[in-house]
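G., the chain you wanted modeled:
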Amino acid sequence: MARTDAELVAATLDGDGNAFGDIVRRYQQFVFNAVYHYLGARGDVEDVAQEVFLKLYRSLDRFDRSRPLQAWIYRITANQCLDEARKSRHRRVKNFADLGEEEEERIRRYFDEDQHGASLTESEDDETLRLLRKMMDGLPEKDRMAFVLREIEGLSYAEVSQALNTSVTAARIRISRVKKKLMVQLDKILGSRQGERP
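Predicted structure as tokens:
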């Protein structure tokens, strides 16, 4: 039977090296995906993900075991991504490059829902995805992180709020504001392009 997060943390602090390996295996997919979607397809994604787990390991003795470990991991991951973005501000980061089918489908559903059931043609949908990738670069760092965690990684508003150390209400407002901003930009771009057509 698999050990709980709390049992793995306790075992790690007692010197069981295998226990921390189990924690890494349990959360590595989330960490890697979040880093990749935030920073883009760059060679340092693995390094950043490793840094997240190194920080987790070093901070386990300060971790409040009455709280969920995954929330602690979400926060460390978000902070590490924000730190990396600040360090490399001079470079424009391409987010959502080379999205997998599952992520593309999630974004497609997101736009379908936001347009109140209005469906896009396949070519218009592909164009929407391409434009979204470009527009994400213009978002403030915390807005981009909130959007990645909620809309791409599928975290709840409560989990996003824990990761960003804010209230659930603030997380909802931030994400709603980002979605509206992206939709306004998309409407302008797509509207102007339709006006250019004969």
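Residues 101-196 form a domain with the Arc Repressor Mutant, subunit A fold (CATH 1.10.10.10).

Shout if anything looks off.
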